[in-house]
Design brief:
Helix content is 89%, strand content 0%.
């Protein structure tokens, strides 16, 4: 906790409050970015699923073409995926690149969100401990002040 406070230049309650407010604003911004990326992912999901289906179902399509029975459903799924990909107006490589970038950005955002939330939790734990420590100090100082007060009265 001391290292955390030191690393982030927190030396007072005001510093802590400023850090917490900044972290909350950062969470809000990151969450908004993640929402935008999730919307983009959802819009492209049919194309991304078609990429996967085309790759995974190619062996089933070959078996169907060779006359093996029981592969009709998979062969149709493969053909549907190929049709969708051929009609979307983008190359498979471009779609695959977009998918990879989108998932990487989402993973990075989620990682950053977890880190900021962890920092907020650390701040909350520090605040709770600081409050408890202040209370302990007050409890310790009160009897000491009473003894000093009695000592002054005697002299």
């Amino acid at each position: 906790q001391f290292q955390f406070l030191n690393e982030h230049g927190i030396s007072s309650e005001a510093d802590m409050t400023a850090f917490v407010e900044k972290a909350k604003a950062q969470i809000k911004t990151l969450t908004k970015q993640r929402t935008i990326l999730n919307v983009q992912k959802k819009k492209r999901q049919p194309q991304f699923q078609a990429l996967t289906d085309e790759e995974v179902l190619a062996p089933a399509k070959r078996l169907y073409d060779q006359g093996h029975s029981g592969m009709e459903t998979e062969a149709q799924q493969y053909l549907d995926a190929v049709t969708l990909l051929d009609s979307c107006g983008e190359s498979r490589e471009a779609l695959s690149q977009q998918q990879s970038e989108l998932y990487t950005k989402l993973a990075d955002l989620n990682r950053e969100l977890r880190q900021v939330r962890k920092q907020l939790k650390m701040c909350e734990e520090i605040r709770v401990q600081a409050t408890a420590m202040q209370e302990n100090i007050r409890e310790t100082e009160a009897p000491e002040r009473q003894r000093q007060s009695r000592h002054r009265e005697r002299t």
